[in-house]
Amino acid sequence: ISWTRIFADLEKALPSDVRVLQIRPQLDSKNRIFLQMVIGADTTGQLNSFLQKLESSEVFGATMVTSIVPPSQTDPLFRYQVSVSYAQKI
What we know:
By secondary structure, this protein is α+β, with helices and mostly antiparallel strands. The protein contains two helices and four strands, in the order H-E-E-H-E-E. A four-stranded antiparallel β-sheet has the order 1-2-4-3. A hairpin with an 8-residue loop joins strand 3 and strand 4 (about 80-85). The longest helix has 12 residues, at about 45-55. It starts with a helix and ends with a strand.
């Protein structure tokens, strides 16, 4: 798995108002790549827009939001924990 390629592919879909806070690539038993990510933004609309871009991308696929954390006094961002399939092209 190429980290450089992951970041290059994410850059094509990532709006300027959404932040990728964590990325953890994983392989399943059939050697398919999934990215576990935590993404953050000021509004849920910004996050949902990013998820739609991922799903319509050539290299990313279906997304699944596993948790949503609203803003708090110490963190002003909405945070989504997301799993997305990824077909890295070499």
